[in-house]
Amino acid sequence: MFFRWKNYLFSCLLSIFCTWIILETKGETSKCDNLLLGQYFCPDPDIDASTQAAVGCTVNHTVEVKCQAAAVGKDGENITACIKNVSCQYTNGHSYETALLLSVFLGMFGIDRFYLGYPAIGLLKFCTLGFFFVFHLVDIVLIATQVVGPADGSSYIIDYYGPRLTHISKNMFTYYKPED
Q: CA angle at residue 94 from 88 to 95, to 5 degrees?
């Protein structure tokens, strides 16, 4: 009796597993790198209400998004969904408003630099009263323009439609449009 029950349970689990494998491989999920631009559509990532950043944003400022692909593929394979890494703003709990208010009211004591994770500069500002209030004013401008951010390389927590600045830089891969 027990032997028959064990065989029945094994066959049920095997059929469930095989059905799951068939359903998972039917809509093949791969990287969107195999597809050309325009052959897939990626929705915006979900936004966390507390940090105002994408849910699942990693330290390297990317988040994986499941994109819908057109029914195309190489050699007859049918890709219906793909995964793409989208850039995002990784935050680690440092608020922009808090940093700016600390810089304005307590910046001469270096509290803003301690808050952002720069203890050496904070101690130097504390000992010299913000370099006799000159560096205090410079820090207000640097934090307000978001040039100085948290020491761990993360972004500030700013409202989704708040005063977030994106710094544009150029490197050897920057393309310059030729003049007419």
A: 90
Radius of gyration of the chain (CA): 26
CA–centroid distance for 136 within its chain: 31
Q: In the block, which residue shows the tokens 């990532």?
A: 45
Count of beta carbons in the 10 Å neighbourhood of residue 130: 24
Q: Is residue 110 left, alpha or beta, with left meaning phi > 0 and alpha meaning psi from -120 to 50?
A: left
Interval 104-132 mean pLDDT? 95
CA–CA separation, 129 and 49 (whole Å): 37
How far apart are the C-alpha atoms of 10 and 12, rounded to whole Å?
Answer: 5
Please state, in angstroms and rounded to a whole number, the distance separating the CA atoms of residues 139 and 143: 6
Residue 124: pLDDT band (50, 70, 90) is very high
CB atoms within 10 A of CB 174: 8
Residue 138 φ then ψ, to 5° = -65, -40
Domain range list for the chain? 27-88, 93-157
Compute φ and ψ for 91, nearest 5 degrees: -120, 155
- Would you say residue 97 has pLDDT above 90? yes
Do the Cβ atoms of 72 and 35 come closer than 8 Å? yes
Per-residue pLDDT tens over the stretch 62-78: 999 988 877 655 554 55
Q: What number of other Cβ atoms are within 10 A of residue 133's Cβ?
A: 12
